[in-house]
Amino acid sequence: MGRGYIVEALVEQYLVNLQTVHASCISGILIGQCSSQRDYVVLAAQTPQKDCGAVRGCSLGDLDADWVTEHGRQVSRMLPGGLSVLGVFLITSPDLSKEAQNTLRKLVYAMEKLISMGRLWNLTEEDVSERVGLHICSKTKKAVCRTFDVRDPKSSARPADWKYQSGVSDSWPVLKCSVDLDLYFPLSETSSENLENSVKIGLQKWAKQMESSVCLINGKHSDSDAELLTGLRKNAKGHHPNFRVQIMLPMQRSSAAAEACGGSLTLAGVLQCRAYLHSHKLKARQAAEAIKRDIMNTLSSRTEMFFEDLLINEGDGGKGIQPLPQRVFAPLPGTSLSLCDYMFPDEGAAEVGERFKEMLDFDIPEEQIDMTQEVITGKFLWHHIFLYYYYDTLLYFSRYLMLGHDVVEVLHLDFGRWPVVSGTLPSLNLPRTTNELACTHPFLSRAVIALHFTLLVTTRF
Amino acid sequence: MVASDRSAIILRARGSLELRCLLDGTDGSHVQKAVSRAFERVRARVTSQALVFRVRDSPMFIWPNKGCQVTEGIAETTACKDLQQRLRSGEPDGGKRSSKKKDKRNGDTSVINIDLLMELTEPGREAGPTLTRREVRHHLAQMALPVDCVVTAGMDDGIGDAFSRLVGALCSQLTDMESAVLRHISGTSLLVPQPFHFHLPEPTGLVTLVYPTGVPDAQLESFRKEMHVRFALPEDRPYLRRANAYHFPGEPFKDGYLRNPHLALSHPALEDAKPFLVQGVYSYHHYMQDRMDDSGWGCAYRSLQTICSWFQQQGYTERVVPSHKEIQQALVDVGDKPSSFVGSRQWIGSIEVQAVLDQLLGITSRILFVSQGSELVNQGRELASHFQREGTPIMIGGGVLAHTILGVLWSETTGDIRFLILDPHYTGGEDLQLVTDKGWCGWKGMDFWDQRAYYNLCLPQRPRAI
């Protein structure tokens, strides 16, 4: 018995539209959620053009497998928990149908390999390991659907059912939570050269902790096989109530250590996490797994992107505090789901919209992009113009203020030559008015004489 | 420091809090400041809203700094005894029986075990995620603080109050740990502070002290002297050595031996008689334990092991209970036996027991000799006063058997006597029920002894030290 694929009607529409395009060979990816019995497909997105204006290739040989799989990898970053890249589709002319099957197989395995490389978690025995390869003949419009077991590269493809249905994701429950992060990685003398590696190793340790963390959903421990919805009833509107997710870490026993370090890395802040579930009948354990995986994914995606960006812009890793890309959400048209993207500090809604168009092939108006879920604390201080002495050390000071961090240690380290600052400034989560600053810091009030109003904020604020 | 009374509940919270000290300099004041700052941070976490108590073996999670609970039916004002009831009713049937026995032995005190967790999904701040890089060279000293604190609550006390006291106990333990760490700093290396609970004589009750790991008891004597004075403890016996730490009811012993099986027995009825029993804790050593088949020849060795276990658990020695080979080697070392003795299956008697106690543990013992078993009836006063003064188990050897005497029931007026015997000839498993039912630990009369044989008794003397 093959697997069944329940596909959103809008996906059918999209695929039909693609077939009317002249080009004879179109590839793309399929996105949705796995379950033990069947998979749900909610979105299809064609592989973006490599360069503008080029005509699409006519043969499968022109297909750049690396490009296709890279598209899949980047899209998988845009998927909240529960959703994943389920497979690949190919639309070709009839004469290429046979060859297409081989290509599909190669693409499916390559994509799965690439995507799972960057993950901090591994598929378990319980996870579905079948991925789909869909072939549509551009002439007959016939769709042939086969699945490949990614755990067994030598296995043969199995036929699967492809069925369209509307409103597939309509009543999918969603789990949301904010996760506080405070990770510290010491860097040895040598490892301060390779930041990215140190971060990877540190994140792997954190991921192990995360996997063994205690997760409560609506107050009940989720290590059971009990259904998610036990005891809950629909409210008047027929919607299920929101789920409250709480994650806690049992204290870890680590061995005592003392080491000399060349430096350190700290990852701190609040992450906004989300996971969609295909059914209320899911076991609590599976729901907890989905949200935990999203937590791990969002942090690893962000740090990956941060280092990629560094590489492209030839940054030196920067010193002091660097913001990680901020997570924003956008609704998927026609469904109740939202997908996400990561926005760098120098970007805005326009750039996010462009990326959605390029990666996922749908238009999203700028005002529908939800940038309020996560916060860069600088926004709090947008309206508060503060004075600072135009000293290079103060540049650090003000940037730290903006990002809302506890300034205690910074002062201790960076202001060694500023003799007056030997006390501690209280945590600056609340906006400070200039008056407050002046009162707690007599030195600063003197510095006010040489004032200079500058906003270190960027235009997007 | 909490008073404990018979109908009280002990709430015990355990966890492992990460301490991270960033030392920018290695001189004393820098290190001190860094350590203090690190402890500040830990205290802040413990008093924050992210602290969660998880009641072991139950689905209950409590946020003590927020006042909300998870399980329905529990509120801040719920009485401790109701909490205990809910826990008990969740126990499987197998647990009920043994918990009855525990209650019998330990009065009505029972322990609610709590684990510490930190919630990640209740961030106390709003800040976007950032990556901070510092290139300052520094020393990192990192450790997991093994917090373990205890408060005693009355049955009718509200749990909200008990839990906030527990948080207070956590903070003060952290302060104690800070002073222990600062007291024992050397350069940039810090010693891990470890809490120990001691059950001191009434009215003091349960007390928690923090000792640095790696510093042996001998070096902490001056600290213990201070504490002895503070808690008004006698100066001649140890109360605050690590081995004296209170063993909470319900916690299994790591080594698996039975402790004080005689406590499960009731005294026989004897007119006008008083019990004089061993004081403190010992482990029951007997034939076939530790995969050593010494059946038929090892009884005196096992009795000696029981006595050694007493000295270890009362804190007089840090030496672990010796094996048969180690006992034999000790006798060779003092010149009492030829070297071929090691590995043999030869018996030993009370004289050898005395010699080994002296050689391995530095304990002196008195030897008592009775020419006939029937004369043991006249030793009542002697034995009673031994148990009162020394409180150590007695090894008795005679005829072809050796036993351990754990106490006597003796009447000064009638001269009637019963002996509490721990029999090392038992070959079964560590089953308290079996041991007590079949009399392997039990009260015996004069008919237990061979009336004609002569007996030697080894009475170990307790050193006067703290």
TrEMBL record, chain A:
Extract one GO cellular component term from the record: endomembrane system
Report the locations given in the UniProt record. Answer: Membrane
Transmembrane keyword on record: yes
Q: Which domain of life is it from?
A: Eukaryota
Please give the InterPro entries that the UniProt record associates with this protein: ODR-4-like
Keyword Transmembrane included in the entry's annotation = yes
- Primary site of residence: membrane
Q: Name one GO biological process term.
A: intracellular protein localization
Q: Which UniProt keywords apply?
A: Membrane, Transmembrane, Transmembrane helix
Q: Outline what the protein does.
A: May play a role in the trafficking of a subset of G-protein coupled receptors.
Q: Which family does it belong to?
A: Belongs to the ODR-4 family.
Output this protein's name.
Answer: Protein odr-4 homolog
UniProtKB/TrEMBL annotation, chain B:
**GO molecular function of the protein, one example?**
deUFMylase activity
Give the UFSP2 second domain ranges. 36-252
Pfam families in UniProt: Peptidase_C78 (PF07910), UfSP2_N (PF20908)
Q: Which Gene3D superfamilies match?
A: 3.90.70.130
Bias (Basic and acidic residues) ranges: 85-96
Q: Name one GO cellular component term.
A: nucleus
Record keywords: Translocase included? no
**InterPro entries, sorted:** UFSP1/2_DUB_cat (IPR012462), UFSP2-like_2nd (IPR049387)
> Which UniProt keywords are present, listed alphabetically?
Hydrolase, Protease, Thiol protease, Ubl conjugation pathway
Q: What is this protein called?
A: Ufm1-specific protease 2
Organism field: Paramormyrops kingsleyae
